[in-house]
Amino acid sequence: xxxxxxxxxxxxxxxxxDTKNAWEKSSAEEREKAFSFCEDYKKFLDxxxxxxxxxxxxVKIAKDKGFVCLDEIENSGEKLKPGMKVYRVIRGxxxxxxxxxxxxxxxxxxxxxxxxxAPRIDIKQNPIYQDSGMALMETHYYGGIKxxxxxxxxxxxxxxxxxxxxxxVEISIGExxxxxxxxxxxxxxxxxxxxMQKKMSEGITGEGLNLLIGSIPYDxxxxxxxxKLNILNILNQKYGIIExxxxxxxxxxVPAFKSKDVGFDRSMVGAYGQDDRVxxxxxxxxVLEIEQPEKTAVCLLTDKEEIGSMGNTGAESNLFxxxxxxxxxxxxxxxxxxxxxxxxxxxxxLSADVNPAVDPNFEGVHEKQNASFMGKGVVITKYTGxxxxxxxxxxxxxxxxxxxxxFNENGIIWQTGELGKVDxxxxxxxxxxxxxxxxxxxxxxxxILSMHAPFEITSKIDVYMCFKAxxxxxxxxx
Length: 478
Ligand code: MN
Ligand code: MN
Hints:
Number of strands: 22
Bound molecules: manganese (II) ion
CATH topology of the largest domain: Aminopeptidase
Strand content: 15-25%
Strand order of the largest sheet: 1-2-3-13-4-14-20-16-18
Structural class: alpha/beta
Number of domains: 2
Distance between the termini: 44 Å
């Protein structure tokens, strides 16, 4: 027989905030759903290791689900009606999807916005050189990486090369089992006495991240740099490109390994690029399931967040505003600027991004009462920023209250989080750029371990809770 709860116990249950373990609070059926959801998630991550690949996959999946390119509708002179599903791709590197709701756009839309770029190493524009019997490529890292994590692991090259005649060659080497991979070497411990005395930030330098790409010389005694020439010859035979073409290229170096289950209990996903594809993917999957909502549901997938969201494919640009303007003009004969302003003001946004989970190996960087944990559900982060909240986005208490209520009413297990201890560091997301337009914005997403490392860890139940949370938000009526 269950022991009767004391008055104090009951009072505590009623009054005190307590986080829940989402595994414990989920039924066997829910757990099963989380596991199977993550099977697709892992496969998607392996197909979408760059922002361009994420967009390609998105368009494929969206078209299958009946989404139509917004530009086509615009050109056809057709109007948008409730229930219609549309998407727009911005320069191949960001995208916005929408399911048109019953209410006018000027009443605001419900947006879940994540970023689809991830920390990586880019290849420089004039990259190939020969040294010590090897050919290598010069690189420039992208986003906040700990450089030492990127040496001595198998790496793949993904991207596009725009040739002299304007044609585009797509490249992906290192993903298939029979493909070669590339790597960045590190110094043997025997000779690393000096290196090991350096600070971790200096042990491997940015200019020291040179990619090993070959070692066989071209067979001609008369030429210099025979190994480099042999590589150029292989690239020319395989892709029809010459060295100058690399100047108009975007080639990204990413880990060559695949997504994996982590743990004896397989409860976690280990993979490259989960910041922020864990949120982008769940936001995408959720919008695909929305049918004629009250307010228009919008999934925003942006590029360049890891370097500050700038540029014409980043959240700081007018891509979101332009999209809403297009929705306004295609749903109302009398488009006006004030209609757009109202739409933006009335818009509600979940800025979907990851939050650093407490890591028992690194005590002291979190204040545990306000930190997020693995497996405790989707994380709500009221504010970001560094030091005195500088450079952050701080959601209004009213909006946090709305979202808390929405999640509680929809059985979504959630927790509160922050970006580490005060004065420990910090950071930001795309939230501030959308908030600048007047919309209500709250940061919300999955807890993650080893953020920005080649192999990042999330909890499967959290991934699934993100999906559930975003789906509930797209259908939010208030
Ligand atoms: Mn992020
Ligand atoms: Mn990041």
